[in-house]
Amino acid sequence: MTKMAARASGGGAAGWRLLLLLAAAPAPVAAGGMLYPRETPSRERKELGGLWSFRADFSASRDAGFMQRWYRQPLRQTGPVIDMPVPASFNDITQDPSLENYIGWVWYEKEVLLPLRWLQDDLNTRVVLRFGSAHYYSIVWVNGVQVVEHEGGHLPFEADISSIIQGSPGVPCRITVALNNTLTPHTLPPGSIQYMNDKTRYPKNYFVQNIRFDFFNYAGIHRPVVLYTTPSVYIDDITVTTTSSESVAMVQYQVSVVGSTLYSLSLSLHDQEGKVVATGDGPAGELKVLNPNLWWPYLMHENPGYRYFLEVKMQAQANGALLEDVYTLPVGIRTVHVTSTQFLINGRPFYFHGVNKHEDADIRGKGLDWPLVVKDFNLLRWLGANSFRTSHYPYAEEIMDLCDAYGIVVIDECPGVGIKMSESFGNKSLQHHLVVMEELIRRDKNRPSVVMWSVANEPASELPPAAYYFKTVIAHTKALDPSRPVTFVTDANYALDRGAPYVDVICVNSYFSWYHDPGHLEVIPLQLTTQFENWYKTYQKPIIQSEYGADSVPGLHSDPPLMFSEEYQKAMLREYHSVFDKKRKEYVIGELIWNFADFMTNQGTTRVLGNKKGIFTRQRQPKSAAFVLRERYWKIANESSCLPPIIKSHTLFLK
Ligand code: GCB
Predict the structure, then answer these.
(1) N or C: where does the chain have the smaller number of CB atoms within 10 Å of the terminal CB?
(2) Ligand 1 atom with minimal separation from the 213 CA
């Protein structure tokens, strides 16, 4: 949609070359597990949120930090530093426009005192430094020693730092992070740097970053940073899948242990009262649960989001000691199936009535913020929404946990947004895309709320290389996780789309009466009906309207409805809904409004302090459209569910 360039002050070819050099390293395979760092009897956790020291590298080539090795000494000794909150984007924290629009390397640093006991039995305690996410390219040092490098802004990465911190009790350990937000044609999302060499029009070394996606490229350490411990022999990964009939469910598990081949594993599955309902042992097996409580979506059952807890215990002999590791994984028992006209959860038709979101808010940008997270879930449930898509990147694990717990169904999208340039369909991009899918599935594979993977949003899927590209990405995704359907979200013409043959569900975006025929609400019924019929005729796959919407400036009124007024947004909804109501009797299986809330974008002539298609403002106040949607979602929920009358009231929160 909008293709605006971010302005940078200074910069130059050398800094850009530096990023390319780093990104040119062979793409790593997502090896090992990435279990969420939970406290258990054998694992401790220390939060590193709060204020970090921060310095943006404003040198012309953005590489002074590397030339002068800022990681070798306290950052404050390299030059002026400021306080920077973590987690948060750095862009909106200061009054400095050059930091808001900064492109290149920024540096973060935190000094941490470690508990003595982590350092005492050095051979048996493993200390891990974990980042929930940092955007976009990260290099991390501990006490001046590089411990990890990671590409990609929305997924976790970690490093075992045990050997570096040993032997220095009482001395703070220094964590330094260099972070680069530059996007290239081969990053996900892609972008490009454009140098403005016309000296009569631009200052020396002037460059802009071009992106082909419609949200601000916020950067920073966006999610929690933690230190956690495990024994030196530890549970590295757990994979769980479930099958069920009415009276019995099977939970298949696989556990991997690292650090020794001599270990024993025992497992017990607990219900929500703590009662053990099944036990097992060994690294792989199946647990049988009689009369299971299934995991149901919100508004489909009186007790949605039911989770069991799988306690995995490992024992091993190492270094003359008996080591025990314990990890508890929440498990939801549910099945997902797709037919040519339906999406079935636990064998029952599921209709997605939900939203598309962004991780976005005033001041903190894309930084995880608990009050905002909880407010958003309260608004979703107020609205009667049963689902959302993580447009256009994986959301924080803390958000996904609440989806599991509340029964909010998720279409889990990777950051494949804005894949428009033909260079972004080459082998280098493809290899990286495969790794990102590995990292996403490794993180979210055990989540009952995740019912489908989305590998991209609105790529140029009509281009010839898109066929091989999406065939490969989707096949890889299915090989990694055969238990879930896969899609990508398209706005291409049904007859030209080269990726659609490989998806399980057609997800289509359209903006009739907005980007097409602006102001003409009357064209919606015909155009939307044609859209659905063309796609269904071609593929005989169920269809989700994965985006539709109109900008509205809160408080702007007009009757008859004119574009940008609250009335126009409402009228557009009603036109779309009348077609959905006909087609959901056939093969339309969902509707996701664009967007849950207003959000920040790059500046441009079509954006007034961001995208205003939210049904809530950026501060989470409802516009008139929110009430229209609320009436509708509760009505649909009431028609299709077998909830007891008391729960059918839309004034009641279920949890
Ligand atoms: C789209 C994109 C979304 C934009 C939206 C818009 O098709 O998928 O990222 O924000 O349109 O409002 O233009």
Answers:
(1) C
(2) 9
Q: How do residues 486-497 score in pLDDT, each as one tens digit?
A: 999 999 999 999
**CA–CA dist 435, 425 (Å, integer):** 15
How many A from CA of 1 to the centre of ligand 1? 6
Tokens linked to 360: 């976005």
Secondary structure (3-state) at 303: coil
Residue nearest to atom 10 of ligand 1 (CA): 214
Instruction: Please spell the DSSP secondary structure of 391-443, one letter per residue.
Output: TTSPPPHHHHHHHHHHT-EEEEE-S-B---SGGGGSHHHHHHHHHHHHHHHHH
164 SS3 class: helix
Q: Alpha-carbon distance 407 to 386, whole Å?
A: 8
Ligand 1 centroid to Cα of residue 297, in Å, is: 27
Q: Separation of 101 CA from ligand 1 center, angstroms?
A: 21
pLDDT > 50? residue 23: no
pLDDT > 80? residue 2 = no
CA distance linking residue 330 with residue 336, whole number of Å: 18
Residues with Cβ within 8 Å of residue 216, at least 6 apart in sequence: 91, 360, 365, 599, 600, 601, 602, 610
Element (H, E) at 640: helix 624-640
Model pLDDT for residues 353-392, shown as the tens digit of each residue: 999 999 999 999 999 999 999 999 999 999 999 999 999 9
d(CA 499, CA 425): 12
Which ligand 1 atom sits nearest the alpha carbon of residue 2?
A: 13
Cα–Cα distances in Å, from 460 out to 421, 454, 466, 499?
8, 15, 7, 10
β-partners of residue 36 are none
List strand residue ranges (DSSP E) for 8-160, in order: 45-47, 50-56, 82-86, 105-112, 125-131, 134-135, 137-142, 145-151, 157-160
Question: CA-CA distance, 120 to 127, in Å (whole number)?
Answer: 12
User: Residue 14 — pLDDT band, cuts 50, 70, 90?
Assistant: very low
Q: Is the pLDDT of residue 168 over 80?
A: no
Q: Once rounded to an integer, what is the mean pLDDT over residues 562-569?
A: 98
The two tokens of residue 153 are: 């802004």
Task: List the residue whose alpha carbon is closest to atom 3 of ligand 1.
Answer: 214
What pLDDT is attached to residue 644? 52
pLDDT value at 643 more than 70: no
Most informative mutation of 548, 611, 618 for ligand 1 (most atoms within 8 A of CB) = 611
pLDDT at 415 over 90: yes
For residue 584, pLDDT over 60 is answered with: yes
Rounded to an integer, the average pLDDT of 112-130 is 89
Q: What is the mean pLDDT of residues 187-199?
A: 96
The first and second tokens of residue 343, run together, are 């999406």
Which residues are identified as catalytic?
458
Contact in structure between 222 and 314 (CB atoms under 8 Å): no
CA terminus-to-terminus distance, the chain? 38
For ligand 1, residues with CB inside 6 Å are 1, 214, 392, 457-458, 491, 509, 547, 594, 611, 613
How far does the centroid of ligand 1 lie from the alpha carbon of residue 392, in Å?
10
